[in-house]
Amino acid sequence: MGVTKKIARNTFFLVIASIISYVAYFFALMYMARYLGPEEFGILSIAIAFTGLFGIFTDLGLGMLTVREVSKDKKLAAKYIGNIIPMKAVFSVIALIYILIATVLMGYDPKTTTVIILITLAIVTSSFFTTFFSVFQAYQQMEYQAIATGFDNIFMFAAVAAAISLSWDVVALASIYLVRNVLVLAYMFIIYIRRYELPKIEFDLSFWKPTIKEALPFVLSGIFLTLFIWIPSIILSAAAGKEAVGFYGAPNKLIYFFLSLYSVYMVVVFPVMSIYYKKSENSLKFIYERSFKYTLIICLPVTIFISLMAPQIVTAVYGDAYGPSALALQILVWTLTLVSVSGISANLLGSINRQLTVIKITTVGIVLNILVGLLLIHKFSFIGASVTTVVTDISVLLFMLYTLSKTNFVDRSLFRDLPKIILSNLAMVFAVYCLKDFNLVITALCGFIIYLTSLNFTKIFDENDLVIFKKMYRTRGK
Q: What share of the chain is helix, strand, coil (3-state, %, to 5)?
């Protein structure tokens, strides 16, 4: 169970920092959306969609590959970081050129184009500091990343508050993203050279080619987690305009907030998966099964609650101007559970060197996303975009689970706790439905209490779970 102690220690550092960070970012986003209004916020959403669509190619899966390989052999750290920095520089220039061409072809106005360029530069900057993140993840030293994660969005919140008080426009607000990422990059660079050494930049082309080939599957895995959300935004911007993108983008950002919190666990568990695939297949199976179980326990009730209370949540977070976003949120929120489960499944496939399978599934998902999007968005606007995203996520998850059912790591026991989880959620649904006209916070609190009580009643946690919780508590105490 030493694997549990590693996950618990690193999760503790990152969860605390990430909760603070993402809550700060959530409030910054909320104030921006209220301040800008649906149309101007739609410009920012279009820019983020573009960077989600093309920005993944600034990394090309090299970060995840670095985590996997350096986790296995720490001596490779200097080689990887020395070559990946110049590799990312080349890819970033290429991505920027593609984004500029796409922006021109889409016919966006100068303001939208400027915002897209600023957000793109911010994403390029982040691709460099995530290189340092990868090394720290491989070494299971998350405290440095935790500090950076805690700082960046606190700065974001303060900067947004100052910008709004000064009546800045959407272009100035977009520049905050770039400044924030430059500061994080400077911090991570300083920490790395103090903790290890000054990176020695290399142009080892004999290393580049096989590394890029090996990393490509991780690109498509990353695309799955981001592209399926943003492709509809691009189609929507052309078919229905900026305001529709704003109505779609507002609930999307809310869901991204919750996905970002859960992604902390994914960052921590992947290097451990990679290590234990070589050492113990039983340990890897145990990690996946428990991750699957905990994902459903955590994400499913949040998904159901948000779907039930979407109108009240949209009004409370974004204001009355975003009322049409409520139906979109009711639909889109299901991506929280779908993407989270698919994420751990994709990580399992990646850790057992089944990257080609991830490529095939992701390719099918992208094609389906575009085809369904073209079919629905033109007729149903941002509601069609929401349905497109969910349909794609369901399809990809089913493909993932079917593929894993053919391996030794997944069997029927994966779903043994599903009836208990469903029963507990039904109890919560009944409580929320009875209290839906009360204060939102009170309703959420009561629903949460009923849910926890139901989980305890169904005895969903077994002896292995209790051992995990005890070790997590002891690790936190240390």
A: 90, 0, 10
Dist CA 207 CA 85 (whole Å): 13
Of 257, 383, 240, the C-alpha closest to 325 is 383
Query: Which alpha helices (H) appear in 240-280, and where do they start and end?
Result: 242-279
- What is the spatial distance between Cα 354 and Cα 334, in angstroms, rounded to a whole number? 27
Q: Report d(CA 263, CA 261) in Å as an integer.
A: 5
Q: Determine the straight-line distance between the first and last CA of the chain, rounded to whole angstroms.
A: 17
For 158-197, letters b (16+ CB in 10 Å) and e give ebbeebbeeebebbebbbbbbebbbbbbebbbebbeeeee
Give the phi and the psi of residue 236 in degrees, each rounded to 5: -65, -40
Domain ranges of the chain: 2-417+460-477
278-289 in b/e form (b: 16+ CB < 10 A) is: eeeeebbbbbbb
Q: From the DSSP assignment, how many helices (H) and strands (E) are in the chain?
A: 16, 0
Q: What pLDDT band is residue 203 in, cutting at 50, 70 and 90? A: confident
Q: For residue 372, which phi and psi values (nearest 5 degrees)?
A: -65, -40
CA angle 41–45–48, rounded 5-degree value: 140
Q: Give the contacts of 36 (CB within 8 A, at least 6 positions apart).
A: 43, 44, 170, 173
Q: Is the dihedral of CA 431, 433, 435, 439 positive or negative?
A: positive
* pLDDT tens digits, one per residue of 451-473: 999 999 998 988 777 766 665 44
Question: Which residues, including other chains, have CB under 8 Å from residue 224's CB and lie 6 or more apart?
Answer: 339, 342, 346, 358, 361, 362, 365, 396
> Could you read off the pLDDT of 252-295 as tens digits, one per residue?
888 877 777 666 665 555 555 555 555 667 777 877 888 888 88
Q: Please tell me the pTM assigned to this model.
A: 0.75
Report angle CA 360, 58, 237 to the nearest 5 degrees. 80
**DSSP state string for 9-76:** HHHHHHHHHHHHHHHHHHHHHHHHHHHHHHHHHHHHHHHHHHHHHHGGGGTTTHHHHHHHHHHH-GGG
